[in-house]
């Protein structure tokens, strides 16, 4: 059979490696805490012999109230990555262009290839931050979508409010801007852009969020988008139907009902994140601003050797040769382990 060569050439998404028995899995940016009892109860009360409600009416209404928008301006999907696929499929096709920073979320190039579009990758700066001026300059008449990831996965850096405003002023209003905020709940930088505050300002902006990280529902796959109704209507038409299960919808509602309890867990992870980043810098490693639930080690050509050291000690991390290593923030004991391992290999890098 004849297949599209650009799709055949793609590498399938590579999930974070599991940890060895007794080790720590720090390779997938997962929340290390088990689900709270209310979420477990919501999942147990779900029906699985019937299809889920396609519109996710209750969850969309709750999210709309949270963001101060109409429910028709909310789309729910099987994780924010599913929404990225739907939105980019609705907005671009053969010969169009998509602009994003690099290195950033490793699935962005797949979005371009699947849509038949050309990926325009704008290098992050020396601090691992988006170069928004260069990204705006990279927009051409063929550009249909621009993705801004804040905090950026995997470097952990954020985009500032003022620089985002300057960027949006420079991007033509017919270009769809996707603000990917999968890790927004972990941000402590007061200057970082907050997508919820930007929604009413720009008619070409769509915000993407997820329940996978801060809310600890990665295994249930539920995320949401907020933006102009006509854009999300097109995205809904391009989305896989019935992809957000009833257990996922119920669990997300329960998580919102108990957000203070989950926010306390986020606060605890932020403490460990900052401890990890500070400790790694004291060892002499290149660690940029960390605002997600992970840190980035700029190990460069030594990335393979550093990853092997973690693996040999039973800690699974995410290596991106030849650039660096992303280490998720887990239990306090895992932070101790990472610092101990790094202290052992840093002198040999």
Task: Characterise this structure.
- The protein is 38% helix and 15% strand.
- It has a seven-stranded mixed beta sheet, sandwiched between helices. It has a three-stranded antiparallel beta sheet with strand order 9-12-11, covered by helices on one side.
- It is globular, with a radius of gyration of 20 Å.
- It has two domains: 13-34 and 260-344, Aspartate Aminotransferase, domain 1; 47-257, Aspartate Aminotransferase, domain 2, CATH 3.40.640.10.
- The model has no long low-confidence stretch (mean pLDDT 96).
- The protein is an alpha/beta fold.
- It has helices spanning 5-8, 37-44, 57-67, 80-91, 108-115, 132-137, 161-170, 195-198, 229-238, 246-257, 259-282, 303-312, 332-345; strands at residues 24-25, 74-77, 97-102, 118-123, 143-149, 176-180, 205-210, 223-226, 294-297, 315-316, 318-320, 324-328.
- It starts with a helix and ends with a helix.
Number of domains: 2
Tell me the Rg in angstroms.
Answer: 20 Å
What do we call the CATH topology of the largest domain?
Aspartate Aminotransferase, domain 2
Shape by Cα distribution: globular
CATH homolog superfamily of the largest domain: Type I PLP-dependent aspartate aminotransferase-like (Major domain)
Largest sheet: 7 strands, mixed
Q: So what's the CATH class of the largest domain?
A: Alpha Beta
Distance between the termini: 47 Å
Query: From the coordinates shown, what is the CATH architecture of the largest domain?
Result: 3-Layer(aba) Sandwich
Q: How many individual helices? A: 13
Strand content: 15-25%
Order of helices and strands: HEHHEHEHEHEHEHEEHHHEHEEEH
Share in helix: 25-40%
Q: Which segments are poorly predicted (pLDDT under 50) over 5 or more consecutive residues?
A: none
What value does the average pLDDT take?
96
Question: Which structural class is indicated by helix and strand composition?
Answer: alpha/beta
SS elements, strand count: 12
């Amino acid at each position: 059979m004849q297949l599209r060569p650009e799709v055949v050439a793609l590498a399938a998404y590579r999930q974070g490696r599991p940890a060895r028995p007794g080790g720590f899995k720090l390779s997938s940016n997962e929340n290390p805490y088990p689900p709270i009892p209310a979420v477990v109860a919501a999942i147990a009360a779900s029906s699985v012999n019937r299809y889920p409600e396609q519109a996710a009416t209750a969850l969309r209404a709750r999210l709309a109230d949270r963001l101060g928008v109409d429910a028709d301006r909310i789309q729910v999907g099987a994780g924010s990555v599913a929404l990225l696929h739907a939105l980019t499929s609705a907005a671009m096709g053969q010969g169009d262009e998509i602009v994003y920073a690099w290195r950033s979320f490793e699935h962005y190039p797949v979005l371009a290839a699947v849509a038949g579009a050309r990926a325009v990758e704008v290098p992050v700066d020396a601090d691992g931050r988006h170069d928004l001026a260069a990204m705006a300059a990279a927009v051409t008449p063929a550009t249909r979508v621009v993705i801004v990831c804040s905090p950026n996965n995997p470097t952990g850096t954020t985009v500032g409010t003022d620089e985002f405003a300057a960027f949006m002023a420079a991007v033509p209003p017919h270009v769809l801007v996707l603000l990917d905020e999968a890790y927004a709940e972990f941000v402590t930088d007061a200057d970082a852009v907050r997508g919820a505050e930007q929604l009413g300002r720009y008619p070409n902006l769509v915000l993407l969020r997820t329940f996978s990280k801060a809310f600890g529902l990665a295994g249930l796959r539920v995320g949401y988008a907020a933006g102009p109704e006509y854009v999300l209507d097109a995205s809904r038409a391009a989305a896989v139907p019935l992809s957000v299960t009833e257990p996922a919808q119920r669990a997300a509602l329960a998580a919102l009902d108990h957000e203070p309890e989950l926010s306390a867990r986020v606060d605890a992870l932020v403490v460990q994140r900052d401890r990890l980043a500070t400790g790694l810098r004291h060892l002499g490693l290149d660690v940029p601003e960390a605002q997600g639930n992970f840190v980035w080690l700029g190990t460069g050509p030594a990335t393979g050797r550093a990853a092997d050291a973690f693996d040999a000690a039973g800690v699974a991390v995410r290596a991106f040769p030849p650039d660096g290593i992303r280490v998720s923030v887990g239990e306090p004991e895992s932070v101790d382990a990472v610092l101990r391992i790094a202290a052992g290999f840093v002198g040999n890098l």
